[in-house]
């Protein structure tokens, strides 16, 4: 990691990008966002030479600043943070193509550092069973340190079925997706209503989770806007119970990361 890019130093920049991405997501479907993102990435690839030149200049400036401050230069050959991020996202896409398991995807995502540039990431956050609730274990909790609401992220495989196309109606939410949505909703309801569980999480992980954003990442890009409308209906059903849930395909989730970190 570059010595001048560490946890917290990019908070204002990345937080603003995060807010922009969330605002766009609230008013546009993933299908439309992906189309715009792909067009932007095409332009980026066509101007990659200029970007590489600018990055080389940035590296030289960073070394000069480090020398002026008495800091050691970056070890090893020159590297580009953008290229590192692109490689990490490329690795995740490769895992999706070979139908990797949830655990493999989660480990690759955490090891990439893509989520932890301006927030703290805690994995496998558990809530013990009680007389009222079963035991629960949240895949990832993102702590934005007061800048944004905490996020609870549930990861499923890229092969996770989102829509069922048999029977009547011929296109509807799959049983697997409904189960995953209910799973995330149960996390949200418990965090809102079980103060003892919330306090235990705070003691164990120093996480104060209040009114979290729930994000389900599952499956791959859907074929058309109508399919995404079905996902929006599932989000709306959960919103009617007072929770904030968003459903992403892996393609949409990685595209959002690229947009925020680019």
Please sum up the structure shown.
This protein is α/β, with parallel strands linked by helices and 262 residues long.
Provide an overview of this structure.
- The protein is of the alpha/beta class and 262 residues long.
- The protein is 53% helix and 13% strand.
- It has one domain (11-46, 80-261): 3-Layer(aba) Sandwich (Restriction Endonuclease).
- The protein has helices at residues 11-27, 30-46, 48-68, 81-97, 102-112, 175-193, 195-205, 225-239, 250-261, and strands at residues 120-127, 136-143, 151-155, 163-164, 172-173, 213-217, 244-248.
- The strands form two sheets. It has a five-stranded mixed sheet with strand order 1-2-3-6-7, sandwiched between helices. A two-stranded antiparallel ribbon has the order 4-5.
- The chain starts with 10 loop residues before the first helix and ends with a helix.
Distance between the termini: 16 Å
CATH architecture annotation name: 3-Layer(aba) Sandwich
**Number of helical runs?**
9
Would you give the CATH topology?
A: Restriction Endonuclease
CATH class: Alpha Beta
Compute the number of strand runs: 7
Helix content: 40-55%
Provide the succession of SSEs.
Answer: HHHHHEEEEEHHEHEH
Question: Per DSSP, what share of the residues sits in E-state strands of 2 or more residues?
Answer: 5-15%
- Structural class, by secondary structure, is alpha/beta
Largest sheet: 5 strands, mixed
- Strand numbers in spatial order across the main sheet: 1-2-3-6-7
